[in-house]
Amino acid sequence: MSDDKNEKKVHGIVAEYTSVDSLLVACRRIRDAGYTKTDAFTPFAVHGIDEALGIKPTFLPWIALGGGVAGLVTALLMQIWMNGINYPYIISGKPYISLPAFMPVAFELTILFASFGAFFGMWALNGLPRFSNPIFTDPRFDRATDDRFFLYIDAKDKSFDQAGAEKLLGETGTEYINTVVDDDSSTTVPKFLLTTLIAVIAISFIPALVVARMRVTTSSKPRFHIFPDMDFSPARDAQQTTSLFADSRAMRPDVPGTVARGEMEENLDFLTGIQMELLSSVDADRAERLVRTYAQEGEPSEKASDQGAEPAKSVMDTTPWLEQNPIKITEAFVQQGQLQFNIYCSTCHGMDGRGNGLVNNRAQQIMASSWIPPASMHQQSLYAEQYPDGKLFSTISNGIRKMPGYAGQIKTRDRWAIVAYVRALQQSQNASLDLVPENQRAEIKAEQARVEKKLAEQAEAERKKEAE
Amino acid sequence: MSKHAPAIKPADDPAFQLPSKLSALSIPLCAGGLFALIAGWAIGNWGVDSHFSMSAYLTAFIYCLTIALGALFFVLIQHLSRAGWSVVVRRVAELIMLMLVPLAVLFIPIVVSLWTGEGTIYKWDDPAFAEHHHIPAAVWENKTLYLEPNFFAARAVIYFVIWIGLAVYFFRSSVTQDETGEKRITERMQKWSAPALILLSLSMSFAMFDWVMSLAPMWFSTMFGVYLFSGGILSAHCAIAAGTYLLQKTGAMRDEVTVEHYHDLGKYIFGFVFFWIYIAFSQYLLIWYGAIPEETIWFYHRQLGIWGVLSLVLVFFHWILPFIGTMSRHVRRRPTLVFGWSVYILVLHFVDVYWCVMPEVYEGPGGGLDAAGGVPGIASSLLSAAGMVALMLGMILTIAGQTRIAASRDPRFGESLAFENI
């Protein structure tokens, strides 16, 4: 290197042309002369220049295709892993691995990765990013973006020899040939730049350190708000004045005719399913608490107000529940109950109340580990004698075990209607024949005989099968 | 430019005339097509029933109609975007779009069927339909406000007035330019292409709602018009490529249409294969995850028996296979391969239309081959389609014989000749 000090390293040769046609002719000349590491610079896209220079079709489409396929596979595997394996979660009753739902993301990632492939592949193939190119040192080269055409032969070309290349280019009708030499300016970074850089990095640590220190220390000064967020609300507090209304009161009186929460006219027995009179004699504290909370907030979850007072089980057993539905049972009322039951309850408890609803079936099918099967309405312990109407009502309102409370979704009256319907359901499963109108008894008997016969036949067939 | 573009030939050059080999085919095609159409109808009518034969006829009709509309769309888009590359192949598209005129005549049997027999094609035409399917009276009343024979016929007239108006206007302007070579005509066509596109898109979507979607009167999908349109525009590109190839093979426009034009048509075909599945899937996905019974019923019918097989055929052979097949630039730069894929997709587009129409012919889930009408049913469907296509081809050739097959005096003709893909 030392003896080359005065003689700069040749990077290549550039020739200038005034028209596209002369450039294309020159391109073909040097292509036919065997040069491959060549390039042309034009102010606009020139059709056929690839062929004239002998540039092979780009490899880029394959990179884009690879990117696209990678995106597709990534998206599918990601979604299968996330939703099907790592965190199985039922969405809209669809299977865990449900391809139609995965398609949009798969499509988007295919496009994204293919675009990345094309974009960064183009960078890689062009050797970008590159901060400078020795060819830019020639002032005449600026006109490559304006009205001149340039042809460049790289010195790294296998068949490159400077004199020959210059001669060849000279024959192509160029007006100007220049040797492109390596940039000889020093490659060492100036000291002041390094110093500044280090200083900037050092200074940038200060805010982070200040924040870090603040996070672990206490201070008697008020908080420093860079982003106030919602710390300072323009909303008025109670008892403050305002200029917004004529009477200067920030607190507005009730609109006439409003029924405020807690001022409902229904009695507490109806709202809680508990005989409050009796409760106050058994457990005065709890009765008082219930009265107070209902007076204030309407219908709170009793569980919440009860927490820590007594173990839950004994409360359920000791509470004097209402024995009877406080609403008169009519056909319309039971039908209303059926409607509500089918909407809210049947998903788990099943249309017939046997605990075989769709959600339960699905949970059994996928063997969901945390699933507690819903109770059948037809077990002895849920009949009216053991499970008073008020208790059933309270269960619907406040939930039990995994079942959430439905007080928020179902109106009080409708909850009582459901209670009535559940009683009807229970009766329907144990109805004796004399409950049926007389004219229909024969029909039911015939049906019964038919089913019994069929069952007997089945049993017979099974026995035979076993014997074989 | 590397290769000098060929000089523009004089307008009366034989290169712009329909080759005699093709013009000789026009009468046989028309006659044979008409015969096949009638034979197809007859086989369907007596082999299966009148409901079936008319549905097979409707399938063939919608198949040709979507391609003609796609061609009209192509012409409008080229004007709207002031495209230079497409001028040499535009006349082929213009000839295809002109088929909207005979198609209007062929639509008459479909309208007439509304009055001759209740529910011959459209079930909503049958007064007993609502009762039969336990549709509440209020719902049915709302449906029949729109689906009513007189209103239906009136809408059909409006659609055809719009389409024929546009097709004839753009065709005649282009043909006039062959004589005068005026640049003003091109400018006028450009000006009108934007409102024309809006009219076309809306009328086409509504027509597809009316004529195909209402086969299942209780089902609705706002994507449906776009769905059939996407298949139609795809097929129109295929038809243009195939038509151009046939013209070149028989000796016309040898120098004018180059690999570059096939390459561009191939790009369009590739893109619209994906557009088609994109629209088809969009429609399917929304209905699938909504899982509302009245919406899923349409796809449910198409998941059972032979229709389920056909659905899979569409996914694999209308999308995946041509998508991979036309992806490569090397395929698109070989006219023979572009022609092959075009014919292939045109066949699959028929399957697509068939899949939309025919499962509605039978009530309830379909079984095996019987659901498609058995052997006479399939023969009827194929003959109807072949007859309709042959009839259309014959008419295209008749018209093409009387005009030129390239808009050779379009101001951008030179640009189109010299066009090269980068």
UniProtKB/TrEMBL annotation, chain A:
Pfam families per UniProt: ActD, Cytochrome_CBB3
Annotated keywords: Heme, Iron, Membrane, Metal-binding, Transmembrane, Transmembrane helix
InterPro entries in the cross-refs: ActD, Cyt_c-like_dom, Cyt_c-like_dom_sf
Signal sequence segment: none
Ranges for region Disordered: 294-315
Alphabetical list of Gene3D superfamilies matching this protein: Cytochrome c-like domain
PROSITE patterns noted in UniProt: CYTC
GO molecular function, one term: electron transfer activity
Domain called Cytochrome c: residue spans: 332-426
Transmembrane segments: 59-81, 102-125, 192-212
Entries under PANTHER family matching the protein: LIPOPROTEIN-RELATED, QUINOL:CYTOCHROME C OXIDOREDUCTASE MEMBRANE PROTEIN
Protein name: Cytochrome c domain-containing protein
Organism: Novipirellula artificiosorum
Lineage, opening ranks: Bacteria, Pseudomonadati, Planctomycetota, Planctomycetia, Pirellulales
From TrEMBL, chain B:
The keyword Iron is assigned to this record: no
Keyword annotations from UniProtKB, A to Z: Membrane, Transmembrane, Transmembrane helix
Domain of life: Bacteria
Entry keyword annotation includes Transmembrane: yes
Residues annotated as transmembrane: 22-44, 56-80, 92-115, 152-171, 192-212, 224-247, 268-292, 304-324, 336-355, 375-400
Protein name listed in UniProt: Quinol:cytochrome C oxidoreductase
Species annotation: Novipirellula artificiosorum
